[in-house]
Amino acid sequence: MPAAANRASVYRRSQPKTGKLVANTALRDYVHDGLRKKWSPEQISHRLIKDFPHDMDMRVCTETIYQGIYVHVRGELKRELATGLRRGCLRRKPRRDPNSRQQRFVDPMVPLSERPLHVMTRKVPGHWEGDLVKGAFGQSAVATLVERTCRMLLLSHLGGSFNANSVKDALVETVDPLPAILRKSLTWDQGAEMAEHRSFANETKMKAYFFEPASPWQRGSNENTNGLLRQYLPKGTDLAIIDNDALQRIANELNSRPRKSLGWLTPSE
Question: Domain residues for 144?
Answer without folding.
Answer: 112-262
